[in-house]
């Protein structure tokens, strides 16, 4: 057992350690993968937008070639109407074009549209220091050159593309004629490519350039963006290069995801650890349940003999004294049966408290049984007893009489330990409305006031009983209080001056009916009448139990056959003619074939009475799951050993009548 525990503990620790290490590795791996994924996405997006923007700008800028060609075809002389026709087409077909200009000798002569751009008419780019350098760059390289972005003369920020036009004179010499110009609204132009949607996709960006003057100019995007940890790519435009800087606007996302992976890993580790522990506990509980089931079987089997033979002995007793002794044995056996049930239920752990087993009975008989127990116990004989039974003799009530009897015996035990030989103990019982009131009083040593608050608390009693020090642990009061609480009752203690104790127990009762002994005998007689001449098959492997059940049934006139295991019972039933057997009393634990298999086999036999014959389980397996198993295979009822003869008669009679 110890080695198993150590082995299970080692496996449990291994699961925890392995789970934590795996979680750490997954967390680090997840973080690295997230960082790599973000980096790859940024590079992919940069490539896409860099190509898009570069292609867009170059396509728009080279729209100036249309105006340049018109000028060259007309020898440098075009009308305003010709200019407007070409310029209007360029303007309307390209988003972001702010103006198309015609500049002979660098002077703005025509402009489309004129609205918003009129102030630019007449400006000479060579006379503007901020424009002249870019203009001469285009002339000297004889290619389209880009200027800006900068503040335009007509207002706003824009970018200017100048396409130089060269003509040939009569001598065949080339000379500079002027420019074909496009003015762009960069923000509107670039927005057409959807770059502003990068923010919604989880990225911050900035498109910037360094001008000829060394100025840092943001073309588009977030001008306040921090450039740390950005990924940059170049966008080539005529005679210039712009830079697209991009980074994630959720830099903590990999860390958060990794943290989530870490928590998930810990949770999974915890679940695996918990599942393993549950599996181990389940296996342990199964082993414990099997052990307790065996205990139940072994403890109830001899109890069955004690109670069964005491019932038979009482019926066959030759003297009243002998009958009294047999009845005392029967009552003691039933009390022991109740205690066994409580101990096994608590030990099994299927309930956190004791379970009531109410039954209908005579209140007066209950008091008589307690008095009989007092008279038969040696340790009770050296006190002076006052027993007052004020209960009506004809009153039937539904109670757990075994636990009620135990409450009385617990309080009487305390009274005995509180007194010495010759002192008086009184026990009385009466019915007050819907409550049973029991009083136990003694003239022994009183419980001190400072100890009374702890008298019903487990493990807190000081055990202040000077006359009989070390004779008891005081737990009888705790047990009595637990049982009374279970029965929805109360126990009240009264200190009788400095000498004497009074415990008053109040238990709610359900009064069934007033019944005389004659009526009780009549009901028993009815059961006997139903069972008379009925063929009952008793299936029981224990010879003693078999004999007890056989004798009890024959006592009420039943005809009994016996089988020592389920296989013999199935064969006997199969060999009998239809309707021969009226009922079967079936033990559960038997060799060769157990009672569950036998009951199921009988129900499946292809004969008319197989499905209807009364089968009652009578077993030392007394837990609730045992009852469910019996009913699941087709049994009509499940009774627990030790056998209660009257209950067995009543169940059999009821089932046989309904059948």
How would you describe this structure in keywords?
Rossmann fold; Beta-Lactamase; 659 residues; alpha+beta; Heat Shock Protein 90; single chain; 5-stranded antiparallel β-sheet
Topology at a glance:
Blueprint (H helix, E strand, L loop, with lengths): L1 H60 L2 H10 L6 H14 L3 E8 L5 E3 L16 H13 L3 E7 L5 E12 L5 E11 L1 H6 L11 E8 L5 E6 L9 E7 L2 E9 L4 H64 L3 H29 L10 E4 H14 L7 E6 L5 E5 L1 H18 L5 E9 L2 E11 L3 H4 L22 H12 L3 E6 L3 E10 L1 E5 L2 H15 L3 E5 L3 H13 L3 E5 L2 H10 L7 E4 L8 H9 L10 E6 L4 H9 L4 E4 L4 H14 L1
Parallel strand pairs: 11-13, 18-19, 18-20, 20-21, 21-22
Antiparallel strand pairs: 1-2, 1-5, 3-4, 4-5, 6-7, 6-9, 8-9, 10-12, 12-17, 13-14, 14-16, 15-16
Helix pairs in contact: 1-6, 2-3, 6-7, 6-13, 8-9, 9-11, 12-17, 14-15
């Amino acid at each position: 057992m110890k080695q198993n525990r150590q082995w299970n503990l080692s496996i449990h620790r291994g699961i925890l350690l392995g789970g934590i290490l795996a979680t750490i590795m997954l967390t680090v791996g997840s973080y690295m993968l997230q960082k790599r994924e973000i980096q790859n996405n940024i590079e992919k997006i940069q490539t896409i937008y860099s190509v898009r923007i570069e292609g867009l700008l170059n396509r728009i800028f080279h729209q100036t070639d249309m105006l340049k060609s018109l000028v060259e075809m007309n020898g440098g002389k075009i009308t305003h109407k010709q200019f407007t026709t070409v310029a209007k087409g360029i303007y309307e077909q390209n988003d972001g074009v702010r103006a198309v200009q015609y500049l002979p000798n660098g002077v703005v002569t025509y402009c489309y549209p004129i609205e918003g751009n009129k102030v630019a008419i007449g400006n000479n780019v060579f006379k503007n220091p901020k424009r002249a350098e870019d203009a001469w760059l285009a002339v000297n390289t004889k290619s389209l050159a880009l200027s800006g972005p900068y503040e335009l003369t007509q207002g706003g920020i824009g970018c200017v593309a100048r396409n130089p036009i060269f003509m040939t004179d009569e001598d065949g010499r080339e000379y500079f004629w002027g420019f074909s110009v496009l003015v762009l609204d960069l923000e509107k132009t670039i927005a057409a490519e959807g770059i502003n949607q990068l923010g919604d996709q989880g990225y911050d960006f900035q498109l910037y350039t360094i001008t000829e003057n060394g100025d840092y100019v943001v073309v588009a995007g977030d001008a306040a963006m921090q450039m740390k940890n950005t990924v940059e790519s170049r966008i080539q435009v005529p005679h210039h290069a712009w830079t697209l800087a991009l980074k994630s606007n959720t830099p903590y996302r990999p860390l958060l995801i990794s943290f989530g992976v870490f928590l998930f890993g810990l949770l999974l580790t915890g679940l695996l650890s918990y599942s393993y522990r549950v599996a181990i506990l389940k296996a342990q509980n199964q082993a414990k349940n099997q052990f307790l089931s065996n205990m139940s079987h072994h403890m109830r089997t001899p109890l069955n003999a004690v109670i069964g033979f005491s019932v038979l002995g009482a019926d066959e007793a030759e003297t009243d004294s002998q009958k009294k002794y047999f009845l005392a044995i029967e009552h003691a056996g039933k009390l022991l049966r109740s205690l066994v049930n409580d101990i096994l239920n608590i030990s099994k752990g299927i309930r956190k408290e004791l379970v009531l087993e109410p039954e209908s009975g005579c209140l007066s008989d209950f008091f008589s049984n307690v008095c009989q127990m007092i008279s038969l116990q040696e340790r009770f004989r050296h006190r002076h007893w006052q027993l007052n039974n004020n209960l009506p003799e004809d009153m039937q009530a539904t109670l757990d009489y075994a636990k009620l009897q135990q409450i009385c015996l617990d309080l009487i035990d305390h009274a005995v330990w509180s007194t010495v030989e010759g002192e008086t103990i009184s026990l009385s019982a009466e019915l007050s409305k819907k409550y049973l009131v029991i009083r136990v009083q003694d003239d022994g040593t009183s419980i001190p006031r400072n100890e009374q608050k702890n008298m019903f608390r487990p493990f807190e009693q000081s055990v202040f009983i000077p006359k009989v020090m070390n004779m008891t642990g005081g737990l009888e009061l705790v047990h009595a209080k637990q049982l009374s609480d279970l029965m929805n009752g109360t126990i009240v203690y009264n200190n009788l001056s400095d000498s004497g104790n009074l415990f008053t127990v109040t238990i709610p009762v359900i009064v069934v009916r007033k019944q005389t002994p004659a009526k009780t005998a009549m009901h028993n007689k009815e059961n006997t009448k139903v069972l008379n001449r009925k063929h009952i098959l008793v299936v029981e492997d224990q010879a003693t139990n078999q004999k007890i059940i056989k004798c009890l049934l024959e006592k009420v006139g039943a005809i009994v056959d016996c089988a020592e295991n389920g296989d013999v019972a199935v064969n006997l039933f199969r060999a009998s003619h239809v309707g021969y057997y009226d009922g079967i009393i079936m033990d559960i634990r038997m060799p060769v074939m157990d009672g569950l298999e036998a009951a199921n086999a009988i129900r499946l036999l292809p004969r008319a009475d197989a499905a209807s014959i009364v089968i009652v389980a009578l077993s030392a397996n007394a837990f609730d799951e045992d009852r469910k198993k019996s009913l699941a295979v087709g049994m009509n009822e499940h009774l627990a050993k030790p056998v209660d003869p009257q209950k067995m008669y009543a169940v059999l009679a009821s089932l046989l009548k309904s059948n």
